[in-house]
Design goal:
The chain is an alpha+beta fold. Helix content is about 55%, strand content about 20%. Helix 3 runs antiparallel to helix 6 and helix 5 packs antiparallel against helix 6.
Length: about 325
């Protein structure tokens, strides 16, 4: 019985290609939203406008939710080389996105509840003042949405570190770990998506409010404003659910649904004499995936042979290969 072990230390940094650019833009949007929030609260208090004060505090909820995204970017970058995070901090953005989706759902629920109360107990609306506030809020949200719109024009680069250990026991089995760091193009970032959905949701409520207020001022339809609030709440709730599902899928290590990465792995390795007996594929960061591949073959090769077959799969950043000699 003989054994040979080779090891190379490497990190597991699986942050998205646009991680730092996204972080800067989220902080800029928070500053823009916070400035507008303070201006509305101060102006509303000084001029006695509850519409201004209410909209200011409404913007504060979105600013607080986006703060979750911003802090997640900072923490993920600072802890990227922390060995306690076995597969890096790339999934921290998905955790933040899931938390932001919950906040968004609560905002939608609050909007719908307040709207139902307004339907039951209508109040007089200062239409001209409310329209001005809604237009100002819409402009800020459109500017924020433009800043947060992800372009995903990263420049890809790769580096590879490998460490393997081969064991021969009777039939023989080889195990090897392969780590390839790269930045993928067009990689979805649920943290950035969460911040973007927040400002788009706020913009949607502004558009619905403007439409309701204009029609209400022309025809006296006080019921239209709360009705639009219910519609907006339902739409935002649907966006929240979609974000929860995508972020939650990553957190639970489900098989990625963008492309058929497991199928590509099987196509690259399996032949008449080799088959994959166990395969696990999951996302470890935006554009980064890990895989554990167990190969049974009657003509076993070294781990590097199978790793070379997978090297063309750009989305595959971390691979563990186990090779077992099959009878016949």
């Amino acid at each position: 019985m003989s054994a040979q072990t080779e090891r190379l230390e490497h990190d597991h940094v699986f942050l998205g290609a646009d991680h730092d650019r996204h972080a800067r833009r989220v902080w800029l949007v928070i500053a823009l939203t916070g400035a507008m929030m303070v201006a509305e609260i101060v102006a509303g208090t000084y001029y006695g406008s509850m519409a201004l004060v209410a909209d200011g505090w409404h913007m504060s909820t979105h600013a607080s939710a986006m703060l979750i995204s911003a802090v997640a970017y900072v923490y993920a970058r600072r802890q990227a080389h922390n060995p306690r995070f076995t597969f890096g901090t790339g999934k921290l953005g998905d955790l933040a996105g899931f938390a932001s989706a919950i906040v968004l759902a609560l905002i939608a629920l609050l909007m719908a509840w307040e709207s139902v109360l307004r339907l039951a107990h209508p109040v007089q609306i200062g239409f001209s003042q409310a329209i001005g506030v809604a237009v100002a809020g819409l402009l800020v949200n459109l500017a924020s949405a433009w800043l947060l719109k992800s372009e995903h024009h990263g420049h890809g680069h790769r580096h590879r570190h490998e460490h393997g250990h081969d064991h021969s026991h009777g039939q023989g089995d080889d195990q090897s770990h392969n780590h390839a760091g790269h930045h993928a193009h067009h990689a979805p970032d649920n943290n950035m998506r969460a911040a973007y959905v927040h400002v788009v949701a706020d913009a949607l409520t502004s558009v619905l409010a403007i439409a309701a207020l204009v029609l209400g001022s022309l025809y006296g339809w006080l019921w239209l404003d709360p009705l639009m609030g219910i519609v907006g709440g339902l739409i935002i709730a649907q966006w929240s659910w979609s974000l929860m599902r995508s972020a939650g899928a990553v957190l639970l290590d489900t098989v990625p649904d963008s492309g058929d990465l497991p199928g590509e792995i099987r196509a690259a390795i399996e032949t008449d004499r080799a088959r994959i007996t166990d395969l696990h594929v999951w996302q470890v960061g935006p554009g980064h995936h890990a895989a554990i591949v167990a190969v049974a073959t009657s003509e076993p090769h070294g781990p590097s042979f199978y790793k070379s077959k997978l090297s063309a799969l750009a989305r595959l950043s971390h691979v563990t290969v186990e090779v077992t000699k099959a009878a016949g």
